[in-house]
Amino acid sequence: MGAQVGGAYAAGVSADALCDHWRSMSFARIAKALLPTFPWAGWSTGGEITRTMKALVGDVRIEDLPITFAAVATDLESGQPHLITEGPLVPAIRASVSVPGLLTPVWLDGRLLIDGGVTDPLPIAAARRLGAEVVVAVDVLVDPGDVTMTGIPALRSSDRLLGIVKRLSDADSVSANGSRRFHPSVFSVLFQMSTVFQKRVSDLALRLHPPEVLIRPDFSSQPPCYSDVGCGIEAGEHAAEAAIPKIEACLR
């Protein structure tokens, strides 16, 4: 998401236009963007994402942008983060958003690239390498403990053998912490796994390369998702407004 929003803004797309774009998203549009592909290197080719971004920014090149920009990706073969600082903007964004398992990897500049969040979810050091003297970092990662996981209730052995669902609240279906046990889907497991390691990598980056200003929007009231931005935009606005005094102090 950082590459999409940052790249579009650097290309001259206004914040209002970006808000309108994401508010216009619907489940149907998201479903179209994530149609399955073959061979199975990822659930979707991401072709609709490429078309959408081209409609927003055209064929502009990164080195021609009025604002310095880099898309952060991960080299799948070396396991290292890779900064894309030149070339066409849209393919760079497409590489940066290649969430493993969801979107197919992208070959770019002789590298097989996936989501930059795998190795550098909060690229503070990358911003400094681009010449930033004051870094305003925005951490939108959710704490794994705040994620509500769901799935098929875990039944008693006898119920499973008989194929009969009798009581979903049986003592056998309750975990050690008192909550109901369940069998999550493979997608729930993968996304929760991603949440866990990205949060750990992000926290490590904050300790090693602390920014001058850290913004953390509170999404607890209505977490945003691809098909519904919910209160995400407002949460970001409120968090940014609260950080303005710190930003002004840095500029002074």
Describe the structure.
The protein has 252 residues and is of the alpha+beta class. The protein contains nine helices and eight strands. Helix 4 (47-57) packs across helix 5 (89-96). The longest helix is centred in the last third of the chain and has 23 residues, at 186-208. The protein starts with a helix and ends with a helix. Mean pLDDT is 83; it is low at 164-174.
Radius of gyration over all CA atoms, rounded: 21 Å
Count of strand segments: 8
Gap between N and C termini: 30 Å
Oligomer: single chain
Major beta-sheet overview? 4 strands, antiparallel
Widest sheet, order of strands: 2-1-4-3
Q: Could you say which structural class the secondary elements and strand pairing correspond to?
A: alpha+beta
Mean pLDDT: 83
Order of helices and strands: HHHHEEHEEHEEHEHEH
Count helical runs. Answer: 9
Uncertain segments: 164-174
- Strand proportion, as a percent range, falls in 5-15%
Helical coverage, percent range: 25-40%
Task: Give the overall silhouette.
Answer: globular
